[in-house]
Amino acid sequence: MKKISIKRKAPTCLSTAALLAAMAPGVALAADRPFTSSVTLNGLQPGDTVDAYEIVDSHVDATTNNLTRDYKLTGYNTNMDERALRDFVNSVSLEAIKSAHCQTSQQTAVDDGTATFNNLDDGSWPSIVTNADGHHRVYQNTVVNTEAKVDNGVYVAADAQTVPVKFTESPNPSKTIYLDGKQVESGSVQKGQTYDFQVTFGVPT
To answer: DSSP assignment, residue 25?
Structure first.
């Protein structure tokens, strides 16, 4: 066996290191496979505005076909059942969602009471409905999952979905006036008198 001197070994190691360095950019350039899908929300009223926020951003590695998730909100878990997920989203303030730097999308309901989001990125999107002028429904926040699905061992885009938005009809705001503990009509209150009033209206969670 031929012996290699120390002087010859060092260049060999340097050549190997240089080769690995040259290979490194190829590994770093591995990209996600982009997946988008279409979601239609129904049960709305024409003119209502729907804002969707991607609180979970899913990624599928183009080389390994592995799926990972980037959670924008602490405490979110995609293994939650429907009720737990709804309770979690309802417990989070809109300010917290906005400050999480989520990807957003907005649509307006058309005449048939639907709002369609085309090309939503793969992930989880809660939608928050704002009533149009003159509308008083109290809508539940609705979470839609657009995560890529597995087909024959390979991830593909999620199917298009139509999702109903649950709501409660809310009457127009009303005010009840009390004077000395008794309900009275507004016209019976005189200037200088102190009275109590109760306002009743629907409030979203």
So the answer is: H
Which residue's structure tokens are 């080389």? 63
Dig out the tokens for 43 from the structure.
Answer: 């049960």
C-alpha to C-alpha distance for 49 and 104, rounded to whole angstroms: 13
How sure is the predictor about 75, in pLDDT bands with cuts at 50, 70 and 90?
A: confident
Which sign does the torsion angle of CA 77, 78, 83, 85 carry? positive
Strand partners, 124: 56, 145
Instruction: Using DSSP bridges, classify how beta strands 49-54 and 103-108 pair: parallel, antiparallel or unpaired.
Output: antiparallel
Q: What does the pLDDT read at residue 94?
A: 82
Look up the pTM and report it: 0.69
CA dihedral (90, 92, 98, 101) in degrees, to 10, reads -110
Query: What tokens appear for 50 in the block?
Result: 């729907």
